[in-house]
Specification:
This protein is of the alpha+beta class. Helices cover about 25% and strands about 35% of the residues.
């Protein structure tokens, strides 16, 4: 039986996890104080934070999970994430980073059928970003009660560059995943709805960021 993708995400990318940053006044601040953002407000169930920062790699993540799903913030230097910071073609570099680093490091080791089912370039506050929907079969945090089979995870991801780092903001909803039977294809209308909801959520998360 597969383990939900988010339960092993930190271990795949960074090793063991523990809370190294700080949470004050509903804001999370990363261990070196270089950025902070508002902790997601759950509508059901207490959030469980997990986090890791590897100083020698200058790579880290923080996730907030509960019965609803998961919100994650991940960052890694561009040179070790398949991205050339100096390139003027930022969109091509972000797509390359998604395919060669984030997909390979996170999604494919858990479920070999994971694939990018939608991608689009976005400008948020004049910042060039890449938005994607990733379908990860059998990797949701919820399961079919009749068959005990994990649903497919529908992950929204927003990538951007800040300084020397690539950031990936991710969102996954257990309730949304449970709308589809395992292996069921999304209709164009389904994909459009998931895209709209995920993009709105991740843009709001981005707008809560403060960079030092």
């Amino acid at each position: 039986m597969k383990t939900p993708i988010w339960a092993i995400l930190g271990l795949l990318l960074f090793g063991c996890s523990s809370l190294q940053g700080s949470i004050e006044s509903n804001r999370y601040t990363e261990p070196k104080g270089r950025f902070s953002f508002e902790v997601p407000a759950p509508s059901f169930g207490q959030l469980r934070p997990s986090e890791s920062y590897v100083e020698k790699l200058d790579r880290g993540f923080v996730e907030f999970a509960n019965a609803e799903g998961l919100t994650g913030v991940y960052f890694s230097p561009g040179f070790s994430s398949g991205l050339d910071i100096r390139s003027r073609d930022r969109m091509t570099e972000l797509e390359k980073s998604l395919r060669t680093f984030w997909m390979v490091s996170i999604y494919l080791p858990q479920t070999s059928d994971a694939q990018i089912v939608h991608k689009e370039f976005a400008s948020v506050d004049n910042e060039e970003m890449l938005f994607a929907i990733i379908n990860a079969p059998g990797a949701s945090g919820s399961r079919n009660l009749r068959t005990d089979e994990l649903f497919d995870a529908k992950v929204g991801a927003l990538l951007f560059v800040r300084g020397e780092h690539v950031f990936l903001l991710g969102t996954q909803s257990n309730y949304r995943d449970a709308r589809f039977e395992p292996g069921e294809d999304m209709t164009p209308e389904d994909l459009a709805s998931i895209t709209e909801d995920s993009m709105k959520y991740l843009k709001n998360l981005y707008h809560s960021f403060r960079f030092e």
